Amino acid sequence: MPFYLEIIICICLLIGGIFLLIGSYGLARLPDIYMRLHAPTKASTLGITGVLVASMVYQSHLKGAFSVQELLITLFLLITAPVAANMIAKTALHYRTKALDRTHGQELMETIRDRESPKPPSES
Fold this sequence. Notes:
By secondary structure, the protein is mostly helical. It has one domain. The protein has helices spanning 3-29, 33-36, 38-63, 69-94, 106-114. Helix 1 (3-29) packs antiparallel against helix 3 (38-63) and helix 3 runs antiparallel to helix 4 (69-94). The radius of gyration is 20 Å and the shape is elongated. The model has no long low-confidence stretch (mean pLDDT 87).
């Protein structure tokens, strides 16, 4: 394997590992669910992306052709992680999970809880 590919793979693995470590630390240390949503959805998504890009470069070199599997996994994670975080936040709002006093946007939580569902165009 050429030295430049080893360097690219190592850099991607290091960046991915750092983001995964930051995401794990944030998940363990942040105090409430609304703050905890940011760590796994942002940092961990970038971390997994770094690891999968390194795997994609390695597998592409081994096969001699572009490796599509890692790219598809990365795209799936980039699409599903924000959707999952949104569903977790909606569930926390629905169950009226209390946020800490220092959590920003507390006034928006009541507005979101009390809003009505949009009416279909035929009922307007």
